[in-house]
Design brief:
Elements lengths: L8 E5 L6 H13 L3 E6 L5 E3 L5 E3 L2 E2 L10 E4 L4 H5 L3 H12 L3 E5 L3 H6 L7 E2 L6 H6 L3 E2 L4 E4 L2 E4 L5 H11 L4
Parallel strand pairs: 1-2, 1-6, 2-5, 6-7, 7-11, 8-9
Antiparallel strand pairs: 3-4, 10-11
Length: 176
């Protein structure tokens, strides 16, 4: 018997210096809920080390997937979003997902990718406090909250917010 969400796919972006919990907690929770999760990086099969040295191997390159392949794109924080946005196919994936109204969920420094994808204008959002100026300069409306959802955009601040972040993502995906 297939899990109830087995045909549903979610992309989790990965690049070097990701925050361990902000990548693995969503991956494991989504898999537990029966979703097929694909780890998407700049290169397929590349291993990317976290801030603490824990490796994550990408399954597919951003250039080899389309936003329409997924219901949601998750962007972990740490310093990885600064590296992600240097990879044009990763930015294009997020930009196209925004245009298609897919769930875009970013935590900590993850909203940097949303800034680069030009999808924050007029949207309520949060993130790690140090990127507030970047978010506001990209047109986002900053809120200091554990999780903020504005339409298809879901954002959170830090690993402490992961339970609220994932509850909101799962609700947006219609599992609650």
């Amino acid at each position: 018997m297939k899990p109830k969400n087995s045909a549903r796919r979610v992309a989790v972006l990965v690049e070097k210096f990701y925050e361990d919990l902000e990548l693995w907690y969503p991956v494991l929770r989504l898999r537990e809920a029966g979703f097929e999760v694909q780890l998407v990086g700049p290169k397929a099969g590349e291993s990317y080390a976290s801030k603490h040295g824990y490796p994550c191997k990408s399954e597919v390159a951003a250039a080899d997937v389309k936003a329409s392949d997924f219901e949601a794109v998750i962007i972990p924080g740490g310093y990885s979003p600064d590296h992600m946005r240097r990879c044009q196919p990763m930015v294009e994936l997020v930009t196209e997902a925004a245009k298609q109204g897919k769930i875009l969920a970013a935590i900590c420094h993850g909203p940097w990718m949303l800034c680069s994808a030009h999808c924050l204008k007029g949207k309520k959002t949060t993130g790690f406090f140090a990127i507030r100026d970047d978010v506001e300069n990209a047109g986002g409306v900053w809120e200091d909250a554990a999780v903020v959802r504005d339409g298809n955009i879901i954002t959170s601040r830090t690993p402490d917010d992961l339970p609220a972040f994932m509850a909101c993502i799962l609700e947006a995906l219609g599992t609650h």
